[in-house]
Amino acid sequence: MDLLSVAASAAIAASAALPASLPAPVAQPAPLSQADAPVYETGETWTFQYKNDLEPTKNSTFKQRVTSVEGNRAILNSGATILGGDANLIKIGAATYEPSDGKLRFPLRVGDSWSSSYVYRSGSWTAVGERHTTVVGVERIETAAGAFDAFRIEQRVSWSASDIRQRDGRTRETDWYAPSVGRIIKSDFSDQQSNFAPTSTHVELVEFSKPQ
Description:
Layout: H1 3-17, E1 34-35, E2 45-52, E3 60-70, E4 73-76, E5 81-83, E6 89-92, E7 95-98, E8 108-109, E9 113-122, E10 125-143, E11 146-162, E12 166-178, E13 183-193, E14 199-209
Antiparallel strand pairs: 1-8, 2-3, 2-14, 3-4, 4-5, 5-6, 6-7, 7-9, 9-10, 10-11, 11-12, 12-13, 13-14
């Protein structure tokens, strides 16, 4: 073999030993660190599953659809439910929260904490709640509707109520708010009323859609 052939063979062998070209790196989404208040659209729909550990006969699945947006309020199911501009409940069924249930405050950031109060009314039942809220972190949450990045929010409430007799109690709640959905997509709730058995309930998103 002549010198030129040897050199060519060496060049081919060297090129074969080189690693193949790597694909360009794919940009990773920035980690979730802050969320602004959601902007709802008419036609957005959420379906939730509700479970009651103490009274399973109350278990249900319910759907909420934005039927109109009035100012900073989202009207769901033609007024059966009303959300404020901060995505907090103002009305659900026959019950109302004044000014709202106060679970969320925007912009939402890990490490934020706040206190709020509300008056809950349902028929002859009126309760005053004092809520303490802390945003403890961001988690990837699996639900029946899919996987979502969500803020984990710890809630503590002391409440007192009056109807026929005076009552009081405490609740502990963990909520997961997903900015991509604009709602709390999962909630674990425990209520301990004085002299009553504790009640634990769970709510989870099972379906979500936006208008086309």
